[in-house]
Design brief:
Distance between the termini of chain A: 40 Å
Number of helices of chain B: 0
Oligomer: heterodimer
Radius of gyration of chain B: 13 Å
Order of helices and strands of chain A: EEEEEEEEEEE
Helix content of chain B: under 10%
Radius of gyration of chain A: 13 Å
Helix content of chain A: under 10%
Strand content of chain A: over 45%
Number of helices of chain A: 0
Largest sheet of chain A: 6 strands, mixed
Strand content of chain B: over 45%
Chain lengths: 108, 112
């Protein structure tokens, strides 16, 4: 299967700071999603972004498929941004391969 | 449009009992996926189903685990004779095609 590596594994930010999360993957993909798992365990879809750039409020994401990586940008972080951010990729098969996540803690 | 629904949200079983986890996909979605998340880990694919068919079960343990998605009603993930190592969060996702997957809130299974 496809290997997915996320960095950094842990991140602590002061409220208001910006951050960049990275996702590297080992093979060509047709699908790529970013998720936020909140402290209650719920998975929230952030972006479906197999290629290109998207923005949604304080969050944006860029995927460079030819170089096999994706970036998630969080600007002006808030305490509610805390949680684990997962990147998941899919090829022509039936499943998503998840990274091990970046655990983000935003402190007031 | 209601999201993916899973129940129960929490399930406690003693070793040797059976666990049944239910997933109702979003309206109009005919593709259902089950994933397992062990503590401190990412999600791992278990099985992919369409109505009445198992399409890919390459991530399912060979014994004790089974899944179905009947013509009527929710998808069921069934774990027989549970062991402590089955304790995990089980997530269901649905999609209208093979693209974006929408995840349910998960079922947290605890085996005593």
């Amino acid at each position: 299967g496809i290997q997915v590596e996320q960095s950094p594994p842990d991140l602590i930010l002061q409220e208001g700071a910006n951050s960049t999360l990275r996702c590297n993957f080992s093979d060509s993909v047709n699908n790529l999603q970013w998720f936020h798992q909140n402290p209650w365990g719920q998975l929230i879809n952030l972006f479906y972004i197999p290629s290109g750039t998207k923005q949604n409020g304080r969050l944006s994401a860029t995927t460079v498929a030819t170089e096999r990586y994706s970036l998630l940008y969080i600007s002006s972080s808030q305490t509610t941004d805390s949680g684990v951010y997962f990147c998941a990729v899919g090829d022509t098969g039936n499943q998503f391969y998840f990274g091990t996540g970046t655990s983000l803690t935003v402190i007031p | 449009n209601a999201g993916v629904m899973q129940n129960p949200r929490h399930l406690v079983r003693r070793r040797g009992q059976e666990a049944r986890l239910r997933c109702s996909p979003m309206k109009g979605h005919s593709h259902v996926y089950w994933y397992r998340q062990l503590p401190e880990e990412g999600l791992k694919f278990m099985v992919y189903l369409q109505k009445e068919n198992i399409i890919d079960e390459s991530g399912m343990p060979k014994e004790r685990f089974s899944a179905e998605f009947p013509k009527e009603g929710p998808s069921i993930l069934r774990i027989q004779q549970v062991v402590r190592g089955d304790s995990a969060a089980y997530f269901c996702a649905s999609s209208p095609t093979r693209g974006t997957q929408y995840f349910g809130p998960g079922t947290r299974l605890l085996v005593l």
